[in-house]
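Thread title: Can someone regenerate the structure for this chain?

I was given the following input by a collaborator and told the matching structure tokens would be attached. They weren't. Posting the sequence so someone can regenerate them.
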Amino acid sequence: MTVVVGVDGAGRTHRLRQLAAAATVPVVPVRPPVPSMEAFAGTLADAAGRDCLVVVDDAHRLGPDALRLLAASARDGIAIVIARRPTIDSMELAALDEAVTARGSVEQLAPLDADAVAALLAAMTGRTVDSAVAAAVHVSSGGLPAVAALVTLAPAGAPSPSLIARIQRKLAVLDPAVATLARVLAVRLDLADGVLAAASNIEPDRLAVAMRRLRDEGLLVPGGERMIPAVAAAILAELPAADRRRLHDLIARSLVRHGPPGGSDLLVAAAQLRAGRVYVPAAADVYHAAGDRLRFADPAAAIGWYDDALEAGANPGGVAAGRAEAAALLGLPVDTKQEGGPEETQRLALVEGAVEAHHGRSDRCAQALVGTAPPGPLLAVPALVATGRLADAGVASATGASGEAPLALRRLAEATLAAATDPVAAVARYIEAAELIERTPPALVLPDTPHALGALVAATAGDVASAEHLLGRALAIGVGGPGVADRYRLLLAWVRMRAGRYDSAVGELVRLAEATLPGRERLLLAGLSAAIARRSGDIARLRDAWASVEPVLARRAVDLFAVEVVEELAVAATRLRRAFRVAPVLDLLDEIVAGLGRPPAWTISVGWIRLQMGIATEDARAVAAAAQALAQPTAGALGVRQRAQQVAAGQWAHVFAGTATAEELVAAAEGLAAAELPWEGSRLVGQGAIRTSDPVAARRLLEKARELSSTDGPAADARGAGQRRSESQHGGLSEREVEVARMVLAGSTYREIGSRLFISPKTVEHHVARIRTRLGATTRAELVAALRDVLGDGEADTAPVSPG
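Best answer:
Regenerated them for you:
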């Protein structure tokens, strides 16, 4: 005797037929329902008298009386084979099962493997089945023979009509709650038990019973609680669109109720709804909450959730603030003019202030933030200080610190207020603010970070090590979001370039050559390009840098913390005879410094710009006036850089007046190098060397210039060793003559070339004469044409100025 156990569709009936065919005695088949107990008893008595085999299909569907009679017959010695579902749900069925197995065995029907599915399909179709097709049917059917057969007979790319009809019949006789559970599972989401029970209106302690029922019906993957893929598709195919929307809404509401926003399951719930393509109002709440949760940790993912929320019917005003925050962190365009409640309006105002700062509009940043609720005024402090509104910054700091403002933002405001008067003392406070923000990032978009501001202030103070530390931490941790990564990298390249290390700067210029940057970073990139061009004597690059930044300067989008960047651009403008275009910017910086009470450190930083412009035009009077102005600030906080600039300014005046001494020039140059301005120091002693008539002093100064200059200068970094031609490829010109020729072609004067190469203008003139002879050029036009042909550096668009 045998008990065949399997879910619906596993092949119970097929197995019974096999056993019946193999029997050596007559077979008496029994299928529910039995006609009457009297007739059934007679059938069993007749089977016993003729020594027949009784084969009972779907024994689980028989009534209690029939089951008791079968059990008694089995115990009396009648040979019986039964087939049933896995679940024994009555005492009578259990008694029958025990009576049959006492003299026989149990066969558990397992799902077919891929090979068995292939054999089944081949038997049905009469031809060999491709292994990939068989594997697909195996996955789709869960290995159940009945489902596999119906899937195979389905039209290509469509659910099987026969399978749909089979499922409809099953759902029609199920308890309504269990049928609803089947439809919920058909969406194929990995839902927790509580969500499944709530969505199906089943008591949680009855969920296991309902799941067993669906398993026995052959709707679930064997051994699991997931819906068989083909069955799920059939269930959804027979659902009208309106019913499907109601089902999605039911699932979404259950997820909201049993996985509240902010809970650990929120993102899982949102992902489940998205996977099921559930876009109903209840799902919008889950998507919105997922976006809010990720907007600072993963802003790109958050924007996707906000878009899903809007597609599901969320109120645009409710989503606007979070989406704006995420977009601002990514550096994407932001719409802050949306309608919303008080909280959304406050958040949008904070984003607007941050975006204005990112575009280099410190004045508009302050305007957007000062009138907001705390901590908005705290965030306005850097913008207020940057635009010279020191008194307003103090008020904003006090106002914004009220309530529960994050400690990191209070420290940031304090550091910036300190930087207004004493950049050196402010650096430590910026580091503290940076550490606090790293530990507990505030849930808002920052106009600027303590890492970036601290690096700028540290560089101004001559503390390059602290600047590099702050920027390295910011890049490693991702402070402020992906949108400010370019800012950190540009600032790192900037502080290294000022300290005489050019590789980072050249790399950033190449990386960002085609990038679209916000105004603040466009200004910084142009300043970096101008600085490299200035240090390499590349007039063409200088023109390119000026062309890119002139529109930015035209809108006067500069502030206190851009002083050193403006220096490079002002010198570029002066070299290109465009000094009048930067005059309004210098006036603005003067106003800002005046608004801060003319602190010595910033007064010297702005005055140094005018000194450099005078040097660029070799205007001895302008240099003397600038040096005199720089010597005035003697009281107050001065950093090592400002003191070195004061001393160097006086020596520049002596150089142009012809009264400089080698000892004083070397001391001033060493002071600049100690203040992380080695190129400036090298240039000072180099100019002194080519202007002195004392050969001993000239040699000493040239040695110091070479000592302070970088061995791998910006010109070499910018062009790359692979782009240079050897001496034999340059018409027989020597390496030094090639250097001179390039600078002549770039438009440099003899004096500028001499300053760059640490040789006298007379020596430059001799080099040019030899170049003319070697190239056979008798006129200036012939020389320029020959140089362009021989050097082959793409300088044809450069308009050289006359050497001399």
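The chain has 42 helices and five strands.
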